[in-house]
Amino acid sequence: MLPEDVRALALMLPETVAGAHRGNPDFRVGGRVFATLWVEEDRVVLRLAPADQAELCEAEPDLFTPLDGAWGRRGWTNLDLDPCEEETLRAALLAAWRFTAPAILRAAYA
């Protein structure tokens, strides 16, 4: 997958807006970041529920790795874009969106 794919897929999610975090493009819902794109490193960092993070990292350890330290323990997870398939990226972005979106918005799109 390419950074352009991340942008296109993330912006398809309801009420997602593009922003920037520390010079990197990010994607927000309800004013909160759910994904940050690291273009030069061909990766996206996702905010996942701990259970989703554990499941994805166990199922595809070559793609998903928790960030080091407290950030990783809070669910922030690297996704390597180069070997990633579109279906995997879509599912991971949706999981991050669901974890981050306000409850009323999640309910509207359940």
From TrEMBL:
Task: List the GO molecular function terms.
Answer: DNA binding
Q: What InterPro entries does this protein's entry cite? A: YjbR-like_sf, YjbR/MT2646/Rv2570-like
Coiled-coil annotation reads none
Which lineage? Bacteria, Pseudomonadati, Pseudomonadota, Alphaproteobacteria, Hyphomicrobiales
Mind telling me what this protein is named? MmcQ/YjbR family DNA-binding protein
Signal sequence: where? none
Mention any Pfam family matching this sequence. Answer: YjbR
Alphabetically list the UniProt keywords.
Answer: DNA-binding
**Gene3D superfamilies under this entry?**
3.90.1150.30
